[in-house]
Amino acid sequence: MRYILMMHAPHGDGEYEILTSWTPEDLKAHLDYWHDLNRALVDSGEMVSVEALTPPGQAKVVRARTDGVPAVTDGPFPETKEFLAGYWIVDVERPERAYEIAATASAAPGPGGALLLMPIEVRQVMRSPIAEM
Question: Could you report the per-residue pLDDT of 11-65, keeping only the tens digit for each?
Fold first, then answer.
């Protein structure tokens, strides 16, 4: 079963606080944690994909228009309390394993080594009947 594990971060000012206010040592510990988690998922054969996303200050919202020219606006909306910072897609035997991985991701270290306890949304990835053919 494939699951997407979506890491949410506080909105703040539209940029990543981690890049602007953390000490180099805290940032290195944080990135090392992600590297170790990702390496473990690759080694176990559970990793399908992992991607970090740019800060929401760089996001755009696109809508179709009747004239065929896309309408592109800044996004996400300022009232957003959290935003999607990145995600993993994992292929695991049971949902509980996806929850274990999400909890591990949630416990990434922050400033001074304190656990961030970030919310990680877990959703099963739907399979298209066409993909099964």
Answer: 655 566 666 788 999 999 999 999 999 999 999 999 999 999 888 778 888 899 9
Q: What is the CATH number of the domain that holds 83?
A: 3.30.70.1060
SS3 128: coil
Reduced 3-state DSSP string for 49-70: EEEECCCHHHCEEEECCCCCCC
**Residue matched to tokens 């592109």:** 72
- Those residues whose C-beta lies under 8 Å from the C-beta of residue 73, and which sit 6 or more positions away, are 60, 61, 63
pTM attached to this predicted model = 0.83
- Split into its structural domains, the chain has a count of 1
Domain of 10? Answer: 2-124
Buried b (16+ CB within 10 A) or exposed e, 51-87: eebebbeebeeeeeeeeeeeeeeeebeeeeebbebbb
